[in-house]
Amino acid sequence: MKKTITASLWLVAAGAFAGDPAYTVRPTELKAKPFSDSSTVARLAASSQVDVIERQASWLQVKASGSTGWVKMLSVRFNQIGSSPQAGATNSSLGVLFSISQTGSGGSVPTTGVKGINEEALRNPRPNAVALQQMHTMDASAADARAFARSGKLASVSLAYVAAPGERP
Fold first, then answer.
1. CA–CA separation, 96 vs 110, rounded Å?
2. Cβ-contact 93, 81 below 8 angstroms
3. pLDDT digits over 106-115, tens only?
4. Count of CB atoms within 10 A of residue 131's CB?
């Protein structure tokens, strides 16, 4: 069950950077290369639609208004299923990150989430066969894993699964 959920989340998240439409959350510069000091190709207004081509570190290569260039990842918000950008919308990822442990007398409960995945996306997942195939190209055989462990002087340790409440170990 855990493997199925993990694989589903991986497939949904992997699709978020593969040609999906996104929107700028603030006025931003489209750079020629993924560097802050690179020349500016164009200036994009807030809520400009961009098509993501590639990700490199904290930069996204995008196509917008006929130009191709690089923008900082935090300047972009991905369109969630069934939604459109709202005027004045901000990228709340950092806010979520810093408020994860915030609780108080208001009865709030700390939660975590995944950017770009909402309840609708979890109810109706869209598998990404290409991403799954790419993931399988990185599979390591058991022999390769053992050789890697030996090269790092790692020792094998067997651990039993933790029993669920009320379940016998």
1. 10
2. no
3. 445 555 666 6
4. 17
